[in-house]
Amino acid sequence: MSILELSTSNGAKTESLLHGRYQPVEVLENRGLGQTLIALDTQQPDHPECVIKQHRLLDNNRESLETARHLFQTEAQILKTLGSHDQIAQLLDYFEVEQTFSVVQEFIFGYPLGAELSQEQRWTEGEVVMFLHEVLDILEYAHSQGVIHGAIQPDNLIRREQDGRLVLTDFSAIRQVRAPLLPTQEQVCLTMSMGALEYMSVEQLRGKPRPSNDIYALGMIAIQGLTGMRPDQLPEDPETGEVVWQQEAQVSEAIATILSKMVSYHFKDRYQSAAEVLAAFKSLEAGEPEVPPQRINQFINLKTAGVATSLALAVGGYSFFEHYNPLNPGLNTLAQAEQKYQEGELDEAFQLAESIATNSAAYEDAQNAIAQWQENWDQAEAQVQAIEQAFEQNQWQEVIDQAAQIPDIDFWQQQITEKVEQAKLKLEQEAEELLLQAYSQAMDKDFTGALQTLKAIPPGTKVYQEVQNKTVEYKEKQQIRARYFLHQAYKQAIEKNFTTALAYLRKVPQGTTVYDQVREKIAEYEEKQQVKAIYLLHRANNRAIVGDYSGALEYLQQIPEGTPAYAQAQAKIAEYTAQQDNQNSSQEEATAGRSSQDDASQEEATASRSSNNDSSTTQPFNEEPFTSSNSGSGDSTEDLFSGSDFFGSTLNPGTNLQEIIPGS
Length: 664
Description:
Blueprint: E1 22-31, E2 34-41, E3 49-56, H1 62-82, E4 91-97, E5 100-106, E6 110-112, H2 125-144, E7 157-160, E8 166-168, H3 173-178, H4 184-194, H5 202-205, H6 211-227, H7 253-262, H8 274-286, E9 296-301, E10 310-315, E11 318-319, H9 329-343, H10 346-354, H11 363-392, H12 396-404, H13 410-443, H14 447-455, H15 464-494, H16 498-505, H17 515-545, H18 549-556, H19 566-596, H20 599-615, H21 637-642
Antiparallel strand pairs: 1-2, 2-3, 3-5, 4-5, 6-7, 7-8, 9-10, 10-11
Helix pairs in contact: 2-6, 2-8, 9-10, 11-12, 11-13, 12-13, 13-14, 14-15, 15-16, 16-17, 17-18, 18-19
């Protein structure tokens, strides 16, 4: 009785045995005329699990059935031979019941390769080359037996739990049996049901299987590992049909060339067998120039806990796997040394690596690894010290930056984990505090200061998106305020108050749209401020000549600091203040003397002053040094300076506020 006729759900057991031997326990896949299920072999000790693949023939034609049966038996024998390869699932049994053909294969404990493919964790070039070498070795054997797999996809490559090696499954005789008996269109449908469409070449979809179909599918898996994108997510050249992928990957030109040839649109442009691809890698390795040890990047990939399953040393951008063999004692020893190195047991790691025999395939790699280990160790130790120093000085961003540069050594990574986490927390707190400070500055209309504060908040913090939003907002408000300051400066200049005008102009920050105009006005107003300072100095001198020291001091105190006349003004202030004090003292003495003198003395003093006035020829300093040359005009200095044209018409570029601050 066929399992197709049983009502079975995932995980449910049936009461009937297939072929009187196999107990179905779980249906993995059910597609039309075919299905895949897990069963228990009741005739073996411990009832081991196995995988059964079935397909039913609907054609009752006796001749077609006999042809299918003959092909099935022939292909099953070939699959049994293929099972002698350690990385191909073994064919345990095959049988036919009621026009349903079944093959029984070993159950591989592990997980599908698809679990290792993700956008977040892309493969390195070394991992891709290692993957290709491993699967190409399997395909080379299969192709040498005249077998095309035809359904290579991540789910048919199982990472074996026992040793971490890849096992190729689903070498099914059903495809070979069914396809020759169907028209081309139905063959295509069968092919699509047996494998993932996106990993198939165009000629395979047309029902024209070739060994290069397997090469194409394997290349697409490698590209998926590098890019993190499934084949159906990658664009293709509309003119050539070629897959466009290199811009999504970090890969050397040499490896990219091999991969691109593996997935060429036309099968004639592809490698025709696995052996050709392996030969291309060997040719690449043979032509690689010698590389100094400092350029060696070493990595170890432990696929299962405690078991060293793969080791590669990437040299100059390429990885060499000519002697790759996970069971090689030298490679295993080197893997153990790496594990000790990661745990911080540096001396033990060196001892293990140095114990590898000179005739071992891993000897040269071990020597290179020892040199690289010491260099990376020293670098990590120095950077950990720098992290600790930065942590003590509350330099949280420096802690994080230094941590990102530490070589990937578990021992040192564990040393800094706690400090890095604390630094991230502190950095977030500081970022929030700085953002609040920027808010406060903006409320005080100090948008320049707020922008400077926002710049101190590093990218990557939780508030950084808000920082970017506020930066845009504050820059716009900074521009508005700059135009406001410029307008206020114009108003002060019209009133000839150049000191205040300049104070407004100097509040306009660099980078604003009006800054060039502000610089021109600063130069103009500074010049006019100096002219006014000289004028005030002359006015003060004139008042001092006539003894009006109070008036002179009033003029001098209006001279702003920074003008050429300022130093002279300060000196005059001291001089006139002293003279004013003397004058006040003399006046007080004169007043006291007059009250005690008799009339005769008073007349004598009066006569004396009259005599002095008559005989004096000294004239007071001309108080109007800036009058017109036309002596008959009667213009005074006050009239000259109070005129709106004295400093030119450029003080007021416009009378409307809208010209300075649009929309106000």
